[in-house]
Amino acid sequence: MIKKYFFLLLSILAFSAFGQKEYYELRKYELPFNSSEAALHDYLSLALLPTLNRQGIENIGVFEVLGDPTPKVIYLFIPYKSMTIYAQVFEALAKDKTYLKKREAYDAISVNKKVYNRFTSSFLIAFDGIPKLIKPKSDTNLFELRTYEGYSEEAVRRKVKMFNEEELPIFEATGLHSVFFGEQLSGPLMPALTYLLGFKSMEERNTNWEKFLVHPEWKRISVLKEYANTVSDIKRTFLKPLTYSQL
Questions:
Q1: Residue 161: which of 219, 117, 227 has the closest Cα?
Q2: pLDDT along the chain (247 residues), means of 10
Q3: DSSP secondary structure letter of residue 124
Q4: What is the pLDDT at residue 226?
């Protein structure tokens, strides 16, 4: 058993040593009742995502929250290979004539038909243990977005260390399918970290979390003093991918 997890940890560390860590932008749009939701989807699917793809940005995720929340919530996830790429793309959008043409209808929406109340944007840097996102399998229909808040920056650093050195192999072993893990650099709820998991169904999700909670390695590390008080609150959201999502 020990040998098995040793090799799992080695594989994660080897993966982290290969290539540069990615950066992630995670936007949360809150849509008012009777908003111009179709206009937002048209903008994202016909203007923004194709332009980002032309700039070399791949695996862009677009999701809506399960259930019927009020206000309705849409998440947009954009991965960047580096901060330099982010800056280049930001400048390119302002000069891309095709993109500017395709977003004209979106920009022309009147105040009484506004698309959103507000949107927030968080910026994250990938963990050492998973420096690049892992594209989910094609049969993934459910995503679980989790944000762990810490009472201090040091608490979040210890939780990141716990994931990198202890938890990620257990996630792999128990079927908690990682998509990305990121430490928050800017945005609301700081200090915090955020990660995304993918599953075929809620049943698979529930079964595999139960496996994790009873796993002997989790039981061992969950009581270690060095990781005490690393999480002060957990925000959990279940998402489903929209038809034009690339995840």
A1: 227
A2: 44 49 97 88 97 97 91 96 94 96 94 91 97 96 98 98 97 98 96 98 98 97 96 97 97
A3: E
A4: 96
Residue 146 bridge partners (DSSP): 195, 236
* Residue 24, burial from CB neighbour count under 10 angstroms (0-12, 13-18, 19+): buried
C-beta separation of 127 from 160 below 8 A: yes
Domains of the chain: 2-241 (3.30.70.100)
44-82 per-residue burial string, b: 16 or more CB within 10 A, e: under 16: bebbbbebbeebebebbbbbbbeeeeeebbbbbbbbbbe
Under 8 Å between Cβ of 12 and 127: no
Apex 199 CA angle, 40 and 166, nearest 5 = 115
Name 74's bridge partners: 29, 64
Distance CA 226, CA 235 (A): 23
- The tokens for 244 are 């034009």
What is the dihedral angle through the alpha carbons of 80, 102, 135, 208, rounded to the nearest 10 degrees?
110
Residue type, 111: V
232: number of Cβ within 10 Å? 14
